[in-house]
């Protein structure tokens, strides 16, 4: 707080607009100087305070799992990056410039990992458009149907095809072509999976990876682990880069399809990277869904294995959204959820416009939802205004960054 020492018997007079009559100048030059000084320092104090309040917010971006086309998340991320560039007048700005931490599950992890992967010089290797284009162009490789036997009707995907595609994208773009790890990210990254060996969730974290090679894993393995949906992929067995930590992973969406709660909990307890965060009032959160089914199962006799998986994933996401709605009930602008309905399965990029034009369905504190007049596009635009106000984030970049 700025403390102003003012001359005695001098009262502050507000700034007079030029459209109003101008009073005669005072005959006392000392009094005029005191008024001008007070006005200047008052404005400086207001600017300083507003800047200080803005920078106290730690900015979190999370992306849900679910589906294979990422229609909702893809549309939201591209619009988010476009709005950041428009509102900052910086055509080269990227999403990682304005968020402090990222989290993603399933196909959301692919996107979160790509937009935070370090190019070796502290900048993201991929833009939002690059990441979404990768999902679109490599979708058949990521989710390549596996030939089933004559008596097997259940659809399965090829693990080998997905692993090949992931290794291509999470590799250093130089002659060495080193496979990138959790440490090789511009900003902290969280990716959850479920470990069958310990029967507990396991979260890949850059904070853990920087402390020990036993918790550092190649990025393609983290993405492969979080997307190992039971019935569609076999469990994924893998180890850390030093071989001392091993997991047998299945889809992280079974327990953390909406990773927003995990990201918030991580920030609240990680005082090393986020020392100024004491509660949710210190957070600014953007949670991006990946589409929810338009049709609900109303009869248990209609439940198939795939519909039960959809119910589980959708239920986890909605539960987390409801909990965060309660946590941020006193300041709803600090928590924004982007979701759309009927886009959870296969789709085309032509549906992106429909996603952005869909009206927001907001969770109410303590239960229920309400349909707002604003669209997903409008909500992202309003969020970006608050996001970019403090300027770019100042967290340290990847520990593996090499100087140019």
Strand content: 5-15%
- Gross geometry: globular
Oligomer: single chain
Helix tally equals: 13
Helical residue percent?
25-40%
Structural class based on helices, strands and sheet pairing: alpha/beta
Rg from Cα:
25 Å
Report on this model:
Keywords: Hydrolase, Lipid degradation, Lipid metabolism. One of its GO terms (biological process) is lipid catabolic process. It is an enzyme of class 3 (hydrolase). The chain is of the alpha/beta class and 404 residues long. Helices cover 37% and strands 13% of the residues. It contains 13 helices and ten strands. The strands form two sheets. Strands 1, 2, 3, 4, 5, 6, 7 and 8 form an eight-stranded mixed beta sheet that branches. A hairpin with a 4-residue loop joins strand 3 (189-195) and strand 4. Helix 2 (71-88) runs antiparallel to helix 4, helix 2 (71-88) packs across helix 13 (376-388) and helix 6 packs antiparallel against helix 8 (219-226). The model is unreliable at 1-23 and 48-54 (pLDDT under 50).
């Amino acid at each position: 707080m700025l403390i102003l020492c003012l001359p005695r018997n001098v009262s502050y007079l507000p700034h007079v607009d030029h459209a109003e009559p101008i009073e005669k100048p005072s005959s006392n030059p000392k009094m005029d100087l005191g008024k001008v000084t007070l006005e200047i320092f008052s404005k400086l104090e207001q600017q300083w305070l507003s800047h200080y309040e803005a920078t106290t917010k730690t900015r979190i971006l999370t992306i849900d799992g679910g589906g294979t086309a990422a229609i909702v998340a893809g549309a939201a991320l591209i619009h988010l990056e476009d709005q950041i560039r428009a509102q900052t007048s910086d055509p080269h700005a990227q999403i990682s410039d304005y968020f402090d931490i990222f989290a993603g599950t399933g196909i959301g992890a692919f996107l979160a990992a790509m937009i935070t992967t370090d190019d070796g010089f502290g900048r993201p290797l991929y833009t939002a458009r690059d990441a979404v284009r990768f999902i679109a162009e490599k979708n058949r490789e990521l989710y390549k149907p596996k030939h089933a036997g004559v008596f097997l009707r259940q659809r399965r995907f090829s693990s080998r095809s997905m692993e090949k595609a992931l290794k291509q994208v999470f590799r250093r773009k130089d002659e060495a072509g080193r496979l990138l790890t959790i440490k090789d990210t511009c900003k902290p990254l969280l990716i959850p999976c479920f470990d069958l060996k310990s029967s507990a969730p396991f979260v890949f974290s850059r904070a853990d990876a920087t402390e020990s090679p036993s918790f550092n894993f190649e990025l393609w393995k983290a993405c492969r682990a979080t997307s190992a949906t039971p019935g569609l992929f076999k469990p994924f067995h893998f180890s850390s880069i030093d071989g001392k930590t091993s997991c047998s992973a299945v889809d992280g969406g079974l327990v953390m399809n909406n990773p927003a709660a995990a990201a918030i909990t991580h920030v609240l307890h990680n005082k090393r990277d986020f020392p100024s965060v004491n509660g949710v009032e210190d957070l600014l959160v953007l949670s991006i869904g990946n589409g929810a089914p338009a049709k609900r199962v109303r009869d248990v006799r209609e439940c198939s294995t795939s519909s039960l998986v959809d119910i589980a994933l959708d239920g986890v996401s909605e539960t987390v959204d409801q909990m965060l709605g309660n946590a941020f009930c006193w300041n709803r602008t600090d928590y924004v959820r982007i979701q759309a309905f009927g886009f959870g399965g296969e789709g085309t990029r032509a549906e992106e416009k429909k996603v952005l034009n869909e009206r927001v369905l907001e969770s109410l504190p303590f239960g229920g939802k309400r349909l707002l007049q604003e669209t997903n596009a409008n909500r992202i635009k309003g969020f970006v205004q608050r996001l970019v106000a403090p300027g770019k984030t100042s967290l340290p970049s990847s520990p593996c960054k090499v100087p140019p």
